[in-house]
Amino acid sequence: MTFTDPYALLTRAEAAEHLRVTKNYVSELTRSGRLHSVRMGKRVLVPRCSLERFICGEAATETDNQWPPTPSMFSADAPNRAE
Description:
It contains 3 helices and 3 strands, in the order E-H-H-E-E-H. The protein has helices spanning 12-19, 23-32, 48-55; strands at 9-11, 38-40, 43-47. The longest helix has 10 residues, at 23-32. The chain is globular, with a radius of gyration of 12 Å. The relative contact order is 0.21.
């Protein structure tokens, strides 16, 4: 699974598939604050940029609470839609 849209919001199932873990473990990660998520109604969604930082071993930061994400939250090769 590859992502091209830096604004992508993933469901817990999609995030779990990408991490190769269960949805319950993704829920545990979001509840503990180790993986940032956003709530839209009853849905819990994981921003793509937060998932990528988690995979790279970076801790959740204050900027993870910003939505929509700022350009500095993306890798240099990601398309920039915030401009």
